[in-house]
Amino acid sequence: MSIHTDIQDEILLVRLSRPQKRNALNDETVLAIENIFSNIPEGIKCAVIYGEGKHFSAGLDLSELTERDAIQGIHHSRMWHRALDKIQFGTVPVVAVLHGAGVGGGLELASACHIRVAESSAFFALPEGQRGIFVGGGASVRLPKLIGMARMADMMFTGRVITAEEGNSIGIVQYVAEAGKGLEKGIELATKICANAGITNYALMHVLPRIADASQDQALMMESLIAAIAQDAPEAKERLKQFLDGKAKKVGE
Ligand code: 1HE
Does the model's pTM come out above 0.90? Predict the structure, then answer.
């Protein structure tokens, strides 16, 4: 099997497990991703995805690319879109823990997650330019939202390799961890996410990206609607009361 899952408390741990091929994403793996994120077990509130071996993922399995014609190529790309949409618009937030290569489709997979942690060994690139192809796993939509269109175009035009620290400063990742400490950091973040109200996590996954894509007028209306729904929940009322009674953590605690 090219992917393994484990459960730790309320967190689903998803491990890319094809280290001999640098976790290159063949069709079997992409379909397994679709299946896993379509069937998050009851009681799970967050997922963490990471890679076995020295790299997160070397991207598309290039050995499967050679025989495809144009229409097969479209179906293949749409399969990636389906699978990665199950991550971005699934039922639980997903933290990606990146180390070594996070390139091509590996970066596309990471971009579909909600938070990215890079170990200091991580590096990012879009070698599609050099391979004579184009991204097909959603990077042209998701990556410009993280780093801007000019940076993505540069990565493809020139094959530029971005380090973990650079990735942190331009927005590919939100955290950098020491070598070997990424998973720990990912689980620490996932634990915080699990403690949020479900409606807040849902709004961040499903409403915020739609607000970002909408016109200002529609976006502000969506914000008002989701804000009203969230504050109406008994859980929100209870959390606000706890703060006002001095029983909740202050900011930063
Ligand atoms: C692979 C792949 C792969 C490794 N497909 N087999 N992605 C790329 O263009 C990245 C290509 N890979 C690399 O540049 C390097 O492998 C790495 C920098 C990621 C890692 O280097 P290293 O020295 O640790 O490993 P290696 O010796 O290059 O590879 C080990 C094995 O994995 C070797 O196979 P072996 O049978 O000779 O042992 C490699 O052939 C195999 N391997 N990467 C297939 N990608 C939805 S569209 C997305 C489009 C893309 O993602 S394009 C970018 C593809």
Answer: yes
